Amino acid sequence: MKTIKVILIIISTFIVIFLLTGLIVKETTYTAEVSIDKSVDEVFTAFNNSEDVNNWIPEVQSFEVVNENPGKIGSIYKIVVLNQGQEITMTEKVLAYVPNEKVTLFFNAQGMLKKDDYIFTEKDGVTTVTLNASCQSDTFLMACVFPYFKGTFMEQDQSYLDNFKAFVEDKKED
Fold it and tell me: Membrane spanning segments where (predicted)?
């Protein structure tokens, strides 16, 4: 009987810690970065070309314009990605767009609310793309899970930036 009590106490402790995570951690944030041996103009143009996005984010199945505004800010896109054999539809909204400097995107992907702030800087012909990302959830249980997947989110975004670097550096100039 004592063994069962100990096991129940341990399980209860883990459950309480898990649930407290969702109350305490409201947002999961991280940074990823890549340096690309191309001018900021080339990098920024390639980054914002929706026709090429599946060259560096292979999970993208389709990218559809819902509403495109002059100047890009407020534009909305529908993106379908394949995640572990399951299609996920998400919307992307452009929150900020400063040519050759910054793009801020907001994603709503079935309960995951993600803001990606990309900063573009150039020094001596090398462009650095810095991603400042933040994830939230519109459900409590998902909010409890996100902090434990921060490393996975970071790895995924870093691999996308690395793929983007390879794509842009291999791309022939037009």
Answer: 6-25
pLDDT digits (tens, 9 = 90+) for 106-115: 999 888 899 9
The three-class DSSP label of residue 122 is strand
Distance between CA atoms of residues 165 and 14, nearest Å: 41
Bridge-based pairing of strands 60-67 and 76-83 is antiparallel
Can you give the pTM of this predicted structure?
0.85
What are the structural domains of the chain? 2-49+95-170 (3.30.530.20)
Backbone angles phi, psi at 172, to 5 degrees: -80, 140
Residue range 157-168, pLDDT digits in tens: 999 999 999 999
Helix and strand element counts for the chain (H, E): 4, 7
The token pair at 119 is 């900063």
